[in-house]
Amino acid sequence: MRKIIVFNLVSVDGFFAGPKGEIDWFNADEEFQNFSTENARSKSSDMLIFGRVTYELMARYWPTPDALKNDPVVAGFMNSVQKIVFSRTLKNVKEGPHWKNIKILHEIKPEDIIKLKEQEGLNILIFGSGTIVQQFANLGLIDEYQLIVNPIVLGSGKYLFKDVKKMNLKLLSTRTFKSGNILLTYRPA
Fold this sequence. Notes:
Elements: E1 4-11, E2 15-17, H1 30-42, E3 45-51, H2 52-61, H3 65-70, H4 72-80, E4 82-86, E5 102-105, H5 110-118, E6 123-127, H6 130-138, E7 144-150, E8 158-159, E9 169-176, E10 182-188
Parallel strand pairs: 1-6, 1-7, 3-4, 3-6, 4-5
Antiparallel strand pairs: 2-8, 7-10, 9-10
């Protein structure tokens, strides 16, 4: 069965974005860029899940000439992989030569997500998309959490686990970056 993996950046105080959704506080140094490229090359995932806001941010950047030039491996992955967007308001999406394989769903139905997990394929990733992470977590649909904790206290912003029911996690691995970022990988206990 495929796993649903959350991959998210968080501050020490638990925010995945600032008060206005900004992520300019994240330290994306060369070591992190190499890590991202390694992950894209590994082909361990073949589907992405987004909420509308994260989807629109990704769609504005990854198919651009800058992304294709500056980060071709990650851009190639992001542009070609299957994407599912959960949105109550988005009616259609614009596909192009670089940005394709997009499906819109208007509600999270656990039975549909379980069917996705049962399909042939690789892991499914959720990037950003705090409200999607929160809803999936409360439905018990997430198999693994990969959280990159940044050495910063934001003081306010958008909590990754806002209104999520208590759950115990088992630490699977850690990786420390020279920048002070730490990748913590957990699965529900």
